[in-house]
Write a structure and sequence with these properties.
Keywords: Aspartyl protease, Cell membrane, Hydrolase, Membrane, Protease, Transmembrane, Transmembrane helix. Belongs to the peptidase A8 family. Pathway: Protein modification; lipoprotein biosynthesis (signal peptide cleavage). This protein specifically catalyzes the removal of signal peptides from prolipoproteins. The chain has about 170 residues and is mostly helical. About 65% of the residues lie in helices and about 10% in strands. The protein is built from 4 helices and 3 strands; from the N terminus they run αββααβα. The chain has a 3-stranded antiparallel β-sheet. β1 and β2 form a beta hairpin. It is elongated and about 70 Å long. The protein starts with a helix and ends with a helix.
Length: about 170
């Protein structure tokens, strides 16, 4: 159970943060989408209420049932992969999985409850996103970083082994 303490704490924190920010955005900028916005200092980022019936970057719009099933499969796969194939005793991997699961569940709750995901962070030309999307992205980047770090360490060890055996 210890391997779940950090992922569950991080997932719960980001799930609550995601749902709270979405609730605030709907209350503040809703009920119509894209009708109002709040520019944050600097003018690059603005908050705007938007529905996303697709996935990242609004791809695959209009298939909420399929996307809900796909999201459930991805979460189940991530849990299996974490327990069966990752070094789940490493803090960075635990944090990565917490971020990914918290974000995935945040968007999954929207899909099940609303039939779409609430997005609200608009940065320049980039597609509108939310806290859950950010958590998933950061978690994935940290996981990739950890894989690259491990791969580099393995390569260095093999090179050192080759040099010392000659």
């Amino acid at each position: 159970m210890r391997i779940w303490a950090i992922p569950l704490a991080i997932a719960s924190t980001f799930l609550l943060l995601d749902q709270a920010t979405k609730w605030w955005v709907v209350q503040t900028l809703g009920p119509e989408t894209m009708a109002r916005s709040i520019a944050l200092p600097g003018g690059v980022v603005r908050l705007v209420y938007s529905h996303n019936t697709g996935v990242a970057f609004s791809m695959f719009q209009g298939h909420p049932e399929l996307l809900t099933v796909a999201a459930l499969c991805i979460v189940a796969g991530a849990i299996y992969f974490y327990t069966a194939h990752l070094d789940h005793h490493q803090t960075l991997i635990q944090a990565s999985m917490g971020l990914i699961m918290g974000g995935a569940f945040g968007n999954l709750i929207d899909r099940i409850r609303l039939g779409y995901v609430v997005d609200f962070i608009s940065v320049g030309w980039f597609p509108i996103f939310n806290v859950a999307d950010s958590a998933i992205t950061i978690g994935a980047v940290l996981l990739i970083y950890q894989f690259l770090r491990e791969d580099l360490a393995e390569r260095r060890a093999r090179k050192h082994e080759t040099l010392t055996s000659q």
